[in-house]
Specification:
- This protein is mainly β.
- It is 12% helix and 41% strand.
- The protein contains 9 helices and 100 strands.
- The strands form 25 sheets. Strands 2, 4, 5, 8, 9 and 10 form a 6-stranded mixed sheet that branches. A 6-stranded mixed sheet has the order 95-94-98-99-92-100. A 5-stranded mixed sheet has the order 11-18-17-13-14, with no helix packed on it.
- Strand 9 (224-235) and strand 10 form a beta hairpin.
- Helix 1 packs across helix 4.
Length: 1426
């Protein structure tokens, strides 16, 4: 923009003109256009032309547009004339208007072009994204289906190294030789590299020793990396072999880096158990290698409560403290080296734990929590691989409140799909969740619990903003503060269904904006689509989050939903209703995979590939299963779904044939099984053997040396076919061949040597796969003739039968004996790998060339060596053996001895692993061959049996067996005379077998009175025969006596419908089954027969009796706890017409009878002699009659009294004491007492006889004894013994101490009170209660008085003392007193009393006197005086 300085007047005039121009231009309607992919404003293109902007041409940059010099015109006009005519300004405005129209038209054209370009860019972007998506789907990590192979060639030959590579996108391939990139430009005439359709080949022409080494091919792509190795060995005609050792470029390294040594194989662990994976390194880890990383399926593992990672010295390990199915996968240990990273990987399989219920399902896995809200979460999981005996019906979901510590079931009905919304949780609470599968057998083991999840508002962070101010301070601002006070809430928005299943719908919505400061909850309403009848769907539930699941929707119906906000001020208006929503259709199980193909991948592994189903959108992975051919025993391979369509199955058995099948896995469950793969037979893979070792010099002359060496530790799966030997002079570098043809034995004579020179040797082992690596160079041996007197060293020391505490050493005698023959051998032992401390195993030399070492410690490592001895002394020791650990390997078998089915004695041995060419080698004493005429060997599969033809003492001794290609599989057995004796006896029994008896003759009587005689032997064949002998004659089945013979069960039975005297006798069953035979006899006579006959008759009659009503329980008596006599019976098979009667002493008696239970009971509360007698019950109807009789007389009645006495004694209360004026009274309460119960009292364990001081007594409910005038001598233990006729029952009371003192004090008190009562003043008799006398007569009242001392006497009238007067005369005597009232009148009526007293007490007696007139009647209750 150009800037100018003008005067104020010019500015005003300019402003006026611009305003006029703006008015003109604003009369045209302006339009704006925006492309579909742009949101920016194009105001720069509006045709409003102010005076200080560029021209239209400059704006649009279009050359064809006429150029309007607006700015120049305006500038010239202002400079030429200060007063510009309005008409010229009008013309200017019209020109501007014309320019504006052109600008709008050009803008429209421009916008159309811009839109077209935007659409083109969108289409190109979508096409690019789709291509990238397709490329991503087809991505596959690099892989070498056919790896490089090792080659061994002669110098000058041409060799081609080939392999195939696959991957998407196509990987970049790089060749390496001995770790360095292979550059074709260095030797283009020698190397030819080709790559076509994934086939990689490297052709090397005219091979030389420089071409030998390790070749590596590395394929890299964005998806991953793969590599393959192959060794090229170049054999020289001059005897040197190049390439057997990797050449290394000399480099200066301060420290040797560690590399992987021993590694971990594929492993298996049961769910819930711990697992440790460990790998060791060739040396201690350097400082930069200390961080050994562990990965599972490419994800790095870190130290945690469940994972323990350790790196100590030259070992690294990882421990899973509790393995779960989620932990299954490929575990990788990663080690850093100077120039690269080394990795080792192996698969870890997690096997199902034992089922909680028989035939129950396994546990689900991978339970994930998502969409966490205040009171809602959404769970997903994966189904288990094993359904159990029946398919999985559904799942139970449980939650665990971390604060409460209890698992609670979330779903009332089992959930079919592998997802579930959990509602009703507490806000701000930590929860864990787990899932268990359910089938018809019950609920299975629960899954691994999820990590603790906090239920909280997921949008809480959006309502808070933190503002930073100066000096690092912050200010927190919440939306509540900005929104102000919102009272009535607004309705929610965006109500929709976020999850739809065939059993539930989950609604989701957005909180109102603004929501206010108050706590918000929600009401959810629903209505059938089209009816507008809204009902509360969240009844009795508090909805405080923006999620709500509904489980009670009807299938096939559509619903609309709306939500209201609720706070303490009220309820909002409803939200906008949703579109019609209905339950989804049940998801079908996924389609099954097809065309599984199994390819042998190793000795114990198979590569399984399959075709994925066309519709794999919802498929989570695949479960694999395998079975041995013909067994149909399917086992699960993986418990975590495999996401690829190929998998290597480990842990199979060599020489076994397998088939495989696959399942698809989805949230809807598992698919059906795929078809079975074609059978695949596992065979051992063949590799070159490992290097021999321990080259020893056995004999030396002036020009020859005899050498021996130890066989390779591993033959590569194929027997070693021969050995190649190289030699060199000490100090030289060139190795020369000694053997052109391979040596068959591990001993070789080297000729044409120069005496006085030192020579070194090395050995190669060869098998069908090729030549292995060379041994280490031997020590430098001096070529000179041996003349020493001692023997040379033994050689070929081998170890057999390694067990936890023992092993066997074998060796060969030295070739050089010295001046005299070898007389024995000394053995030495050293503990550890490299210890130089040797200890003698035996004090005396052994003559044998084998020795069993015992007393070893399990897990400890040992080395051994042997020294030969002759008359000159001990020679030099043999080379030490390889270190061996005393440990019995899993699956180790020992030689077993026994007798076969034909009666031959045999020795048997079973090998754990065998190859096609494996053979069992049987020897005697580790060396002697077994004579063919004395024993024969038979091998079937992996078992060999040595069978003796006719064993005798010549066959006794030590027998050994081993595998020709694996001497580690070996065992021995010492066949002793004791074994021979026992086995010969067993052999005779087998050759002359007896049919084994399971159950001897048994006699049974049925309820109907039928008799069954039976016996049972072992199971017999269909050719078995039976002869039944009765009293020395053979019998067969008759209608009366039926004979059955079940051969499969070995059951012989004789059935009698009615046993009679003719059936008495001896029964013998003679059995024969092939060579086996036996006979069994039953003596069925005398008492045994009579008892059976009587029992059969009784059972027959009883069966007939039960045809009608009968007594299930006959009359019987019992004594209950209340000492009552109860006579009961029980009848059965009655109906409404059945009559039931009781007769007591032949008199019919009515007794209670419960027809529903059939029980009738007669109860006597007290037993006396009249209860003795006969009782009879009769039940009858038209079907029959049954009678039950009970006689309570004689012995039965005595037994009744005894039981009654016993119950009475048992009812006795504890012994108690009662104090009286006479003394102590000990008593015991009973239900009731009878004379049959004999009682006796004891004091201090002595019987108390009746005397003046004691008095026993009894009543109907009490038994007592009185002790008169007790003293201190009566203190002690009192016992009541009750004898019921059989048993004695006791009740005791300890009357000592304070108890005795209290009782004695109470007795003295009562005694004094009784004495006072006897001597106190009292009126004995003489006065009636009411006396009536006619007026005018004299009344005389007399009474008798007692008391000591003589009492004082007072007469009272109406409670006033009466004195002697003319009218009243009182007479007092010691024992008698009277009062006379003369000439009585009505005034003399009233109460008269006599009061007597002395020092012990007083007494008052009242009499009422009623005086009546002449003609009146005296009171009815009065005594009329004459």
């Amino acid at each position: 923009m150009e800037t100018r300085t003008v005067t104020q007047r010019e500015q005003e005039e300019q402003s006026s003109k611009m305003s006029h121009s703006m008015e003109l231009s604003s009369q045209i309607k302006k339009k704006t256009f925006t492309s579909s992919d742009e949101e920016a404003s194009y105001a720069d293109y509006y045709p409003i032309i102010p005076a200080d902007i560029m021209s239209v041409k400059e704006i649009l940059n279009i050359d064809t547009t006429p150029r309007h010099r607006t700015w120049e015109i305006l500038k010239d006009t202002l400079a030429a004339d200060e007063e510009y005519h309005r008409d010229k300004w009008t013309m200017f405005g019209n020109e501007v208007e014309s320019v504006e129209v052109d600008v709008i038209r050009n803008q429209h054209v421009l916008r159309t072009r811009v839109d077209a370009m935007a659409l083109r860019r969108q289409a190109e972007k979508k096409t690019s994204d789709h291509l990238k998506y397709l490329e991503h789907l087809s991505q596959k990590a690099p892989d070498f289906p056919i790896p490089l192979r090792a080659h061994c060639v002669w110098e000058g030959m041409t060799v081609k190294l080939s392999c195939t590579v696959q991957g998407c996108p196509p990987p970049k391939v790089t060749w390496y030789k001995d770790g360095l990139p292979l550059r074709m430009s260095d030797q283009p005439w020698n190397y030819s590299l080709k790559e076509k359709f994934g086939l990689l080949s490297l052709e090397i022409r005219r091979c030389s020793s420089d071409d030998a080494g390790e070749y590596k091919v590395v394929a890299k792509s964005p998806v991953g990396e793969a590599m393959t190795f192959g060794t090229l060995v170049v054999n020289s005609h001059q005897g040197a072999v190049a390439g057997s050792e990797c050449s290394q470029t000399p480099a200066l390294k301060l420290e040797r880096e560690a590399q992987f040594g021993s590694t971990f194989p594929p492993s298996w662990v049961r769910e819930g158990n711990s697992l440790t994976l460990e790998c060791s390194f060739t040396s201690a880890l350097l400082s930069f290698q200390q961080d050994v990383s562990w990965f599972r399926d490419g994800i790095k593992l870190l130290q945690s409560s469940t994972v323990d990672i350790k790196t100590i010295d030259n070992k690294a390990s990882i421990t899973l403290r509790a393995a779960h199915k989620e932990h299954e996968g490929v575990y990788t240990a990663r080690l850093r080296t100077w120039d690269s990273i080394q990795e080792h990987s192996a698969f870890v399989y997690v096997k199902d734990a034992a089922a909680l219920v028989v035939s129950g399902p396994a546990s689900p896995l991978d339970v994930q929590v998502s969409d966490v809200n205040k009171n809602y979460v959404f769970l997903t999981w994966q189904p288990p691989s094993a359904d159990g005996a029946t398919p999985v019906d559904g799942y139970n979901v449980e939650r665990f409140d971390v604060g409460q510590g209890e698992w609670v079931l979330c779903n009332s009905q089992i959930q079919k799909m592998c997802h579930y919304p959990v509602f009703g949780l507490k806000e701000e609470t930590l929860y864990q969740f787990r899932v268990s599968a359910v089938n018809k057998a019950g609920a299975g083991r629960p899954s691994k619990a999820t990590e603790a999840v906090l239920t909280t508002d997921p949008l809480e962070h959006t309502r808070t903003m933190v503002v930073k101010v100066d000096r690092g301070r912050t200010i927190t601002i919440t939306k509540d503060e900005l929104e102000g006070q919102v009272k009535a809430p607004f309705p929610p928005t965006d109500v929709r269904a976020c999850e739809v299943s065939d059993t539930y719908v989950v609604l989701s919505w957005t909180e109102p904006e603004p929501r206010g400061r108050e706590q918000l909850t929600f009401y959810v309403e629903r209505s059938v689509a089209g009816k507008n009848s809204w009902q509360l769907a969240s009844l009795d539930m508090v909805v405080n989050s923006t999620r709500f699941p509904l489980f009670d929707l009807a299938k096939g119906k559509e619903y609309c939903f709306r939500v209201r906000s609720v706070n303490k001020y009220g309820v909002s208006d409803p939200s906008e209703p949703t579109q019609p929503i209905s339950l989804g259709k049940p998801k079908a199980k996924p389609a099954q995979p097809h065309t599984p193909m199994a390819i042998r991948d190793g000795d114990t592994s198979v590569l399984l590939q399959w075709q994925e189903p066309k519709d794999k959108e919802d498929i989570l992975g695949y479960y694999l299963y395998y079975s041995e051919v013909g067994s149909q025993d399917w086992k699960t391979v993986n418990n975590k779904p495999v996401t690829e369509n190929r998998f290597t199955v480990h842990g199979l058995k060599t020489k076994q044939e397998y088939v495989f099948r696959v399942k698809s896995v989805s949230r809807a469950g598992n698919s059906n099984y795929s078809s079975e793969s074609l059978p695949v037979l596992l065979k051992s893979a063949i590799r070159v053997p490992s290097a021999p070792s321990a080259i020893a010099l056995l004999l030396c002359t002036a020009s020859e040396m005899v050498l021996s060496w130890r066989a390779p530790a591993c033959n590569g799966g194929d027997p070693v076919r021969g050995y190649y030997l190289d030699q060199k002079e000490k100090g030289t570098e060139t190795w020369r061949e000694v053997t052109v043809k391979p040596a068959k034995e591990r001993q070789f004579k080297v000729c044409n040597l120069t005496s006085g020179l030192f020579y070194q040797f090395r050995v190669f082992a060869a098998n069908a796969a090729g030549i292995g690596k060379p041994s280490e160079a031997s020590d430098a041996f001096l070529c000179e003739e041996w003349t020493m007197p001692e023997p040379g060293c033994p050689y070929d020391i081998e170890i057999r039968e390694v067990r936890n505490s023992s092993l066997v050493l074998l060796w060969s005698a030295p070739l050089y004996e010295g001046r005299s023959p070898v007389t024995g051998y000394l053995l030495e032992i050293s503990q550890g790998y490299h210890s130089d401390s040797w200890t003698a195993l035996s004090e005396e030399p052994t003559l044998d060339k084998y020795y069993k070492v015992s007393g070893l410690h399990a897990g400890h490592t040992y080395r051994f060596r042997v020294v030969a001895v002759n008359e000159a002394g001990a020679g030099c020791a043999s080379l030490p053996t390889e270190p061996v650990t005393a440990q019995t390997k899993p699956g180790t078998k020992n030689v077993e001895i026994g007798v076969d089915d034909d009666g031959f004695i045999f020795l048997g041995y079973e090998a754990e692993v065998m190859n096609d060419d494996s053979q069992f080698l049987w020897t005697k004493r580790y060396a002697q061959a077994i004579e063919a005429g004395r024993a024969r060997t038979v091998t079937k599969k992996n078992r060999s049996v040595l069978t003796f033809t006719d064993p005798s003492e010549e066959d006794l001794g030590l027998y050994t067996v081993e595998m020709n290609d694996n001497p580690n599989l070996s065992s021995s057995y010492d066949f002793t005379a004791e074994d021979l004796e026992q086995l010969k006896e067993l052999s005779w029994h087998i050759r002359n077998p007896l049919i084994a008896l399971k159950s001897a003759w048994q006699v049974e009587v049925s309820e109907k009175g039928d008799v069954r005689l039976w016996l049972q032997t072992e199971s017999l064949s269909n050719n078995a025969e039976l002869r039944l002998i009765l009293n020395d004659r053979e019998v067969s089945s008759t209608p009366h006596r039926k004979i059955n013979f079940d051969k499969a069960k070995g059951l012989v039975e004789i059935l009698f419908d009615q046993l009679s005297q003719e059936d008495e006798g001896s029964y013998t069953a003679q059995l024969r089954d092939g060579r086996a035979k036996n006979q069994f006899t039953l003596v069925f006579v005398d008492q045994k027969f009579r008892q059976t006959l009587a029992l059969a008759d009784r059972m027959r009659r009883d069966h007939q009796r039960k045809a009608g009503p009968y007594f299930e329980e006959f009359l019987s008596w019992s004594i209950n706890e209340d000492c009552e006599l109860v006579i009961t019976c029980k009848v059965k098979n009655t109906n409404k017409d059945t009559s039931f009667k009781w007769f007591v002493k032949d008199v019919e008696t009515q007794v209670a009878y419960d027809q529903s239970s059939g029980v009738s009971t007669l109860t006597f509360q007290q037993v006396t002699l009249k209860e003795a007698g006969s009782y009879r019950a009769v039940v009858s109807d038209r079907r029959g009659e049954d009678v039950s009789t009970l006689d309570l007389v004689d012995d039965e009645y005595d037994r009744l009294l005894q039981q009654l006495s016993k119950q009475c004694a048992l009812s006795a209360s504890p012994l108690k004491i009662q104090c009286t004026a006479e003394g102590f009274k000990f008593y015991c309460s009973l239900k009731y007492y009878i004379n049959h119960l004999k009682t006796s009292w004891h004091f201090m364990e002595k019987r108390i006889d009746q005397e003046n001081k004691t008095k026993p007594g009894s009543s109907m409910k009490n038994v007592w004894i009185e002790i008169f005038n007790p003293t201190e001598n009566d203190k002690g233990k009192y016992t009541l013994e009750m004898f019921d006729g059989k048993e004695t029952h006791k009740r005791c009371l300890e009357l000592t101490g304070q108890a005795f003192a209290d009782a004695l004090l109470e007795y003295q008190r009562l005694k004094q009170a009784a004495f006072a009562e006897i001597n106190r003043a009292k009126v004995l008799k003489g006065l009636p209660d009411v006396v009536a006398i006619m007026e005018g007569k004299s009344l005389c009242l007399t009474c008798f008085i007692d008391g000591d001392p003589a009492p004082e006497i007072f007469w009272l009238r109406n409670d006033r003392e009466v004195v002697d007067t003319a009218q009243f005369a009182v007479k007092k005597e010691p024992k008698c007193s009277s009062i006379t009232v003369n000439n009585v009148n009505t005034a003399d009526s009233g109460k008269y009393s006599i009061f007597v007293r002395n020092k012990y007490g007083s007494e008052t007696v009242d009499v009422t006197v009623s005086v009546y007139k002449h003609g009146e009647k005296p009171p009815a209750n009065a005594v009329e005086m004459p």
